[in-house]
Amino acid sequence: MSIKYQLKRSIKRKTLAIKIKENQVLVYAPNYLALNVIEQWLTSKQDWIEKHLANQQKSPLAKSVLELECVTFMGKTYSLVYESDSVQSKVTLDGDVLRINTSKRVKHIEEKQLSLLMQFAAQQLTSYCEEKAADMANKLKVSFQMVSVKHIKSRWGSCDTKGRLQFNLQLASAPLWVINYVIAHEVAHLQVMDHSHRFWQVVKMLYPEHKKAESWLKENGFKLDIFKVSNFRKKVVEGDGFEPSKAMPSDL
Q1: What DSSP assignment string belongs to the chain?
Q2: Is-contact 202 192, C-beta < 8 A?
Q3: Domain boundaries, the chain
Q4: What angle do CA 167, 252, 230 make, to 5 degrees?
Q5: If pLDDT is split at 50, 70 and 90, which confidence band does 246 have?
Q6: 94 Cβ partners below 8 Å, 6+ apart?
Q7: Distance between CA 26 and CA 28 in Å, rounded?
């Protein structure tokens, strides 16, 4: 076997999976699966493994928000102050200072601090996206059902056939003009669900400089990946028998 890997078995797992983490290959497998079956499957994924190991070594990584002294959310820059003397874990805003206070009872402090910051960022981004999406939807004379924010890796935003708009939490630290483009992209899907020429005409009407924002995301999107405890990039590929969740009908 030419691939060096660490095998992790589990009673509950029913599928094979590979994770590339900190330049290491981790293989997750069901307890009952024979080693030769695992290695045969792993060999079939060798090109994928080599590609993502190479990408991980050369790709720049964003720092975790927990490593930063200042962070920008929705165009505003805040100094971060961490405290652990509170009865209740919470984030308080004091001018341009964000105080992240964890309860004395918290055992996993970094995880809690990250969770608190994510909640704050999600609230800020959701409010902003709701307001901007409503303005853009009014221009098109369309409506949407709801706006939600989720920490995802695969896309910046999505819109489904029920009019539900979803945005990536990582956008919270992007420039406002970039966030506006993503909102315009998803609102345009309320009128045109595909990526046809007609769709891009709608996007252009809502946001004339959409190409500039698209380029920014391609070149700088990795910098927004700050919501993590450890500074590593991970990739997962699932084996036969795994049924991934279906993507939204339209995504960015």
Answers
A1: --S--EEEEESS--S-EEEEETTEEEEEEETTS-HHHHHHHHHHTHHHHHHHHHHHHHS--PPPGGG-SEEEETTEEEEEEEEEEESS-EEEEETTEEEEEEETT-SSHHHHHHHHHHHHHHHHHHHHHHHHHHHHHHHHT---SEEEEE--SS-SEEE-TT-EEEEEGGGGGS-HHHHHHHHHHHHHTTT--S-SHHHHHHHHHH-TTHHHHHHHHHHHGGGG----SS---EEEEE-TT--PPPPPSEE-
A2: yes
A3: 6-59+233-251, 65-224
A4: 60
A5: very low
A6: none
A7: 7
Contacts for 23 with CB less than 8 Å, ≥ 6 apart: 53, 56, 57
Which pTM was predicted? 0.70
CATH architecture of 65-224: 2-Layer Sandwich (3.30)
Q: Find where tokens 């971060």 sit.
A: 80
Cα torsion angle, 14, 234, 83, 123, sign: negative
Looking at the predicted structure, is the pLDDT value of residue 211 above 90?
A: yes
CA 73/CA 90 separation, integer angstroms:
17
Q: What is the pLDDT of residue 190?
A: 96
Q: How, if at all, do strands 97-103 and 90-94 pair?
A: antiparallel
